[in-house]
Amino acid sequence: MAASLSLTDVNLHFGGVKVLQDVSMNVAPGVIFGLVGPNGAGKTSLFNCISGHYKPSSGSITIDGTEVLGSAPSRLSRLGLARTFQHPALQLHSTVLENVLLGGHTRLPGGPLPWALRLPFTARAEDEMRSEALELLDRAGLGWAAGKPADELSHGLHKGIELWRALLSKPSLLLLDEPAAGLSHAEVEQLISTVKRVRDEQDITIVIVEHHMGLISALTDQVVVLDHGRKLMEGTAAQAQSDPRVIEAYIGKDAADDAA
Ligand SMILES: Nc1ncnc2c1ncn2[C@@H]1O[C@H](COP(=O)(O)OP(=O)(O)OP(=O)(O)O)[C@@H](O)[C@H]1O
User: Fold this and answer.
1) So what's the ipTM on this one?
2) Could you tell me the pTM of the whole model?
C-alpha cells in the first residue's frame, strides 16, 4: 500500500553549518511529490535524512505514522522505503541482473541460517526473484543487458538499472534523487513515461528531487521548494515556477527585479 510521509521541523547541522532548518512537509499516499530548489539548497541532504543516511539534529520523520527519525537504512527498507542516488551506486563489475537482484533481498524469506544451509525453499525463493527481475528488465526493454557487466553500459542505463533495482523491493515509498541528471532529451521522455506507468500500476508514493523542471511539471502533483535549507514555498509545479520568491532564489534578486 502507498505510504504517507510526514516531516516536522527537521533540522540538520554539520558543526556550525545549518544544512536544514525547520523543514516540514506532508506527502499523501499515492502522490508524486517534487523537491526542488537551487544548487546547495539541501534537497539531497533532506533525502539522506529520510532514507537514514544522515541523522537529523532534531525534528520528526514518520512513514505511515511510525517515527523513523535516525533509523538505519535497513530498517527503513523493511518499512517499504527504496531510493536511487544522484550518482548511481552500482556494483560495476557485477551483471545488470545481479545489480537489480540486490533490490529484492528484503523480500526474501528466512534468516541467515537457512540461507547459509541453502535449504530448498531458499533456492526456490531465489529462482522466483530472478524470474521477477528478468521480467522487470524485459518490460523495460533491458532484457538484452541482463547478463552484461554494469560497467559496459552507459550512464543513462545505469540510472535505469538503479530504478529497477529499487522497484524490485516493491516499495511503498520511492525516493528518486535527480533521476534525469545527465540523460538525453529522449531518455528523459522515456523516464517520464516509466514513472507514470509505475505510479499507475503500483500502489506507491514517489518523491523526486530534480532540477529538470519539464520532468517536475510532467510528473508531480505537488512540490516543495527549498532554499538555503529552509522551505520557501509549496504548491503545484506551475505555482512554483511563477512564484517571485522562487524566481529570486534561482536567479538572484537583482535579475528578478530586472525581469519583472
Ligand atoms: N556530509 C556533509 N558535511 C558537511 N556539509 C554537507 C554535507 N552534506 C551536505 N552538506 C552541505 O549541505 C548543503 C546542501 O547540500 P545538498 O547536496 O543537500 O544540496 P542540494 O540541494 O541537493 O544541491 P544540488 O542540487 O547541487 O545537488 C551544501 O552546502 C553542502 O555542502
Assistant:
1) 0.95
2) 0.91
